[in-house]
Amino acid sequence: MRALSHGSSMRAHVALALAALVLAGDALHPSLAAAGFDYKDALSKTIIFLEAQRSGKLPPNNRVKWRGDSALDDGKLANVDLTGGYYDAGDNVKYGLPLAFTVTTLAWTVLAFKPELEQTKELEHVHEAIRWGTDYLLKCAARKNKLWVQVGDPNLDHQCWVRPENMKAPRTLYEIDEKTPGTEIAAETAAAFAASSMVFRNDKKYSRALLNKAKLLFLFAKAHQGSYDGECPFYCSYSGYNDELLWAATWLYLATKRQVYADFITHEAISSSVAEFSWDLKFPGAQVLLAEFNMTSGGGAQNFKVQADNFVCAVLPDTPFHQVFITPGGVIHLRDGANTQYVTSTSFLFVVYSDLLLRTGQSVMCGNQPVAPARLREFARQQMDYLLGANPRHSSYVVGFGANSPTQPHHRGASTPVLPPGTDVNCGLSFGEWMAPDRPNPNELTGAIVGGPDKNDGFVDKRGNSSYTEPCTYINSLAIGPLAALAVRGAQLVATH
Predict the structure, then answer these.
(1) Measuring CA to CA, how many Å separate 482 from each of 190, 200, 252, 399?
(2) Every domain of the chain and the residues it spans
(3) Could you say which of 70, 164, 315, 457 has the lowest number of CB atoms within 10 Å?
């Protein structure tokens, strides 16, 4: 399965903080400058993958023709409607924490890259991707101090290799409430609602509903603190919930401009310098968002600009504070199992942060060593180009894009032929029939960014090699922004918006 992570006026400030971004490719790595990838095609396909992950009743404009309606009775066991949302990866379970993080990062993508998405004609598709998630999350959060956080028993689900349209495993429901808290999931869902409320401000009623839910869930997350371990061993929050509380408060602050959230950030929230941004560890995301607001965490212990700088210094290989392993071919490798999530998340943050630094005339400081914003953009482009094919294998890690792209992603729907509705699948035979054979999937999982290579740049394109061939929604959600910027700006060094 997927990786187990460890890891002027206020209005004007917010607008500037979320200004559209540029990605310059003044590459220090000569082979990358000449890579010449079709970033627009990669962008479009990356978004299509999210549509392949939809659960529920598919819309008439469904672009993934081998997908059909699925899990139409989700929630029935509790007499509620929990249809919709996303399957996170290659199985048929809906996990609340990564699903909400996918939505939050998609919303941030729109807020940061709106001009690029408009120019590439992908803005509406990303809006649809966000709303597919928020419509579902609103159902999950319909009652105060209660949140449905998972649909499907993963242990039972993993006993059958079957596409979601034909699954028959019980759709077990999991929830958090005052007696069974889950601060990480409640706060992440609050962040998703707050960020998305900014995206949909032209729809005042919907935006208000999202923001009201964000406020309530944040209060719930603070009042009933505790980690929810029900998604373990598949999504264990090793980092705890302080990062999610800071993350949610940050998005609520940006969405409302209310002092109560600023006070929480500066006096109550706990922050820390880390080298990872992921579904489990949100500190760097919040730090980049807050870097220009002259706030400090922990009552003044350290300002967010310093912590954002520390993240960059820990990642870049040419700083004295480098911590993150870089493969011989040049890509980030934190751990096996959906490692490309760290590639896309770092690329995203580097582009966002470089824009802020350029606009404010600042550099990253790694001790006494300044790092120019151009270096962040160059590294981000290098990382994205590696995924597209500028790597020792000269192979793409995006299904259906570029040279030698993966043909066997670890994914039930893509690897199983379309079957008539109601087909009774023999689970005992399903793995031998559809998972084990060494042959391309019958359905192309277009745009899926698979887990990626090992620490030596090696990769075996086989479904059973799940740590390296399984895609996840949150890998793709964080790739959309950098790809949109590359598609529009290419190698041009241009002024920020």
Answers:
(1) 25, 22, 24, 18
(2) 36-489
(3) 457
Tell me which residue has tokens 């095609």: 41
Burial 419-435 (b: 16+ CB within 10 A, else e): eeeeeebeeeebeeebb
Q: Which two tokens stand for residue 376?
A: 């962040």
Question: Can you give the pLDDT at residue 421?
Answer: 84
Candidates 158, 410, 411, 497; catalytic one: 410
Q: What local confidence, expressed as pLDDT, does residue 494 receive?
A: 39
Q: What's residue 32's pLDDT?
A: 35
| Tokens 């970033």, located at residue | 39
pLDDT lower than 50: segments of the chain: 1-34, 492-497
Beta strand 302-303 with 369-371 is unpaired
Cβ–Cβ under 8 Å, residues 95 and 234? yes
Hey, CA dihedral for 364, 282, 18, 478, is it positive or negative?
positive
Query: Which is nearest to 380 in space by CA: 126, 125, 117, 113?
Result: 113
Is pTM beyond 0.85 here?
yes
One-letter amino acid at 227 equals: S
> What CATH code is assigned to 36-489?
1.50.10.10
pLDDT tens-digit series, residues 393-439: 999 999 999 999 999 999 999 999 999 888 999 999 999 999 999 99
The pLDDT tens digits of the residues spanning 329-352 come to 999 999 998 999 999 999 999 999
Phi, psi dihedrals of residue 185, rounded to the nearest 5°: -70, -40
Report residue 112 as tokens.
């940061």
Q: Cβ distance 318 to 380 under 8 Å?
A: no
Given phi > 0 = left and psi -120 to 50 = alpha, else beta, which region is 62? Answer: beta
In this structure, what token pair is assigned to residue 126? 């990303």
Distance of CA 334 to the CA centre of its chain: 16
pLDDT at 21: 33
Q: Which two tokens stand for residue 158?
A: 């993993």
Q: What share of residues in the chain are helix, strand, coil (percent, to 5)?
A: 45, 5, 50
Contact 23, 351 (CB under 8 A): yes
Distance in Å from the first CA to the final CA of the chain = 40
E strands, 384-473, in order? none
Beta bridge partners of 297: 302
